[in-house]
Amino acid sequence: MNSIFASDPSCENRDLNIKTFKVVPVSNRLGIFEWVDNTEPLKALISKEHKNLENGADIHESRAYRLRETWLQKVAKSDGLKNANIAHMHLSVLKLDEKSVVKAFNQHKAAMPNYLLRNALENLCLNSSAFLTIKNQFIKSMAVFSVASYLIGIGDRHLENFLIDTTDGEL
What are the percentages of helix, strand and coil residues in the chain, rounded to 5? Predict the structure, then answer.
């Protein structure tokens, strides 16, 4: 993808690229990653902010998490499952109609503060101009990565699979 970006004048002018690191494949499902200094998973940054907001409480103790767990248990019970594990609960959700899932998602989303990522990026900075630089770098790199991963078919995009460079905010 970086070769494609470099060969296109529009992409070259915008300095579009993806930071990379080495991976040694061990099997078709396992690999060893190169250690990348000054990085942190996106989920860890957001969880740290959530912990600060909740006076040290873990994200699993949050109102949003408890709301989701209660809903999943209710869905599993209505599906005839007692003491279901998380995988069974999610299978029960697949049987629901779209409207009820969207409604529950919106309720859970409303219970989670929407400024955790912004705060996490702010905490990487010493001043407001640094925040603007880091925020813009994060947005650009997230957009480039999202488009590239869509084009080449990478589907495993969750918050634990995004490393943020804590020196410049780049993905």
Answer: 60, 5, 35
